[in-house]
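Below: protein 1.
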Amino acid sequence: MDSPGHGDLVVGIGLRDGVGPDAVLDAISAVVDDPADLHALATLERKATESSVAIAAAELGVPVLGFTADELAAVEVPTPSGRVAAEVGTPSVAEAAAVLGAGGGDLLVRKRARNGVTVALARTVW
């Protein structure tokens, strides 16, 4: 795995199949002012290897952390989704992945959706 970025922010990402890297980068820029503040991107394990997420992470110079649906489902989030739970087996991807990727850190920005991408932001605890 790549070494994490130097920042202390983790963006959790949920996305529809077929979404391009520009939409991912656009959604990230809506919640992160300075890419240098990023530590990592985090998402559902099977989405972590999707080209759009990998390309966005490479452009931002941070690793992608992948979590299983069970790991994500164990995290309490402020805005769970029954639709997401039915589709991928966890009521939260973006918020739960942000929190897990940040080592249990505080959720700074609740999920925001745009152009097929949902993002949330957490600060690392280390």
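Below: protein 2.
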Amino acid sequence: MTTLKATLQQDLTEAIRARDELRSSTLRLTLSAITKEEVSGKTARELSDDEVQKVIAKEAKKRREAAEAFAQGGRAEQAEREKAEGVLLDAYLPQQLSDDELRQIVAEAVAEARAGGAEGPRAMGAVMKIVNPKVAGRAEGGRVAATVKQLLAD
């Protein structure tokens, strides 16, 4: 078992013992999403820590989107719960890049792509290929793409 998955299961056990309903239900759902990912496909396999992290990031993103939808629908109580679950899951993810750090990484990638001959808006694919491995798990794809577009337009 990977160390991140083991940590999640340990934290679930502690949350159940402490009768922390929010934490235990969130961790249960996340662990079931991890298990679902492990058994999907032709053969069952054990996920690496990076893959587990991706599942947790996906679950956290679902919570943020659901919180937004509930808030727009006028269900503030449910929106708060979804936000709290998202924050709880964020604790298991690597520290997110600040806007300045992301901008710096993208600026270097744009310079590198331009040196390779990529110009204008068509260079987005080349820049994204350079940026994605550097920011994997530390910045959402939409945020990265928006920054790339902005810097390519400059």
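The radius of gyration is 19 Å.
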